[in-house]
Structure formats: C-alpha cells, structure tokens
Amino acid sequence: MRTVALSLFVLWALTLAGCQSKAAKVKQLQDQYNAEYPAYARDCIDPETAGAARMLTGEKLTTEQLRTLEAMKKERDARCEAWAGRLAEIQKEIIAAQQ
Question: What is the secondary structure of 3-21 as a DSSP string?
C-alpha cells in the first residue's frame, strides 16, 4: 500500500513539474513575442497604414513620389518578411506549448 501511494505521489509530482515547466515556456515565449512585436509594428506596419491615411485625406502624389514610395515599400517588405516569419513562428510555438 505504501509503495502504491509513493508511486502515485511521484507520478503526481512529475506531472505537476511538467505543467509548471510548460507554463514557464509559454510565459517565456509570450514575453519574447511581446518584446519583439512593438518594434515590428513601428517599422513594418505603421508605414504601411500611413499610405492609406494619405489616400483617405485625398493627398495627391506626383509620379516621382509614387516611385519613391514604391521603392521604400519593396525595401521594407524585404526587410520585414523575415521579421514577420519569426513572429509567426513564435505564435505557433506558443499555441503548441499551450496544448
């Protein structure tokens, strides 16, 4: 009887330790995501929405300004693509760790 009780206690303790380490991993991933996202939003999302704001206000751009904006967008997209992929990977890891 003592052996069974001891075995159940050890199993329970291991299960509890696993849950705590799982929660710690989720927290670590969420902290990492929360640390990286604001800079991504500032550098990659905000400039994108600025163009929409210009269109809504009716601002007219010259052909040269449009070319410049398009070149900046291509450069930003290339720079931000890897960053977006990294954030998406962290999100997938968070979801996987929560299950």
Answer: HHHHHHHHHHHHHHHHHHH
Q: Give the Cα separation of 87 and 99 in Å (integer).
A: 19
- Which of residues 17 and 99 earns the better pLDDT score? 99
Domain ranges of the chain: 22-98
Exposure string for 27-59, b = 16+ CB within 10 A, e = fewer = eebeeebeeeeeebeeebeeeeeeeeeeeeeee
pLDDT tens-place string over residues 60-75:
878 898 888 888 888 8
Q: Specify the amino acid at residue 95.
A: I
Residues 6+ apart with CB under 8 A from 91: 33
